[in-house]
Amino acid sequence: MTTAKTRIRIGSAPDSWGVWFPDDPRQVPWTRFLDEVAGAGYGWIELGPYGYLPTDPARLADETARRNLRVSAGTVFTGLHHGPAVWDTTWEHVADVAELTRATGAGHLVVIPAFWRDDKTGEVLESSTLSAAQWRDLAGQTERLAREVRERYGLRIVVHPHADTHVDSEENVARFLDATDPDLVGLCLDTGHYAYCGGDSVKLIETYGERIGYLHLKQVDPDVLAQVHAEQLPFGPAVARGVMCEPPAGVPALEPVLAAAQALDVDLFAIVEQDMYPCDPDRPLPIATRTRAFLRSCGA
């Protein structure tokens, strides 16, 4: 009989190797990422930015299979609070990622809301708060996206609360969940981003457990986070300063988060994502290896 603890599958992502973009000279080559993520003891990966890993399904399948890796999800960024006007351009991007995600055998599409300020330059792109009409558009268009992705590609979307987006804090995450259909829209709980924005991951799991469809595991350094908030730093410079840190050095403690997730008694992916852009190319592998050993010590 399958126990609850065995129902959480641990993986990692290009993000933990300092990969934020499809192509960037400061990022490790995709072949090195695949070699090292397998060598660190992970069996599951995310696709990362579309175009970083091979987009030809046959080649990607060959490259992952010979390293004993499987894909858990693809990722898309969306600005659905802008309403129907952005649907066509959004779908054009989503369809490419969803097609590749389906071809890998994965079942999830991680959906990240658009940033309200540029994560590199800090330029304010729009208001950090949404109007009532924008909240309605966000909820309605996200449900539309979920329905289309499910019907056309057989994937379930999980929305990822993220720093410097409109779905970030405990209040805004709750508002988003309460406004969307549980049968369509799941949540990707990123423990680091939620702590970054003042949320309690264990409380969220206990309150909205039926909405938790996916986990990203990361921690924040509380001292650096205090500096980030005091200086009102954008997310990109905050990451460069080291706001996301190697577990178990930061918050939230991952043992109670995993215990709360295990208590849900559902199949979940828990993907390690330690934001490190940019980073020395030799830095990720030792951290990834130690993190995998730490998670094993937590029973995951």
Automatic annotation (TrEMBL):
The record lists the organism as Streptomyces crystallinus
Please indicate which superkingdom the organism of origin belongs to. Bacteria
- Pfam families to which the protein is assigned, alphabetical: AP_endonuc_2
InterPro entries found in the cross-reference section: IolE/XylAMocC-like (IPR050312), Xyl_isomerase-like_sf (IPR036237), Xyl_isomerase-like_TIM-brl (IPR013022)
Molecular function (Gene Ontology), one example: isomerase activity
**Entry keyword annotation includes Isomerase:** yes
Keywords noted in UniProt: Isomerase
Protein name, entry field: Sugar phosphate isomerase/epimerase
Domain Xylose isomerase-like TIM barrel, chain residue ranges per copy: 34-277
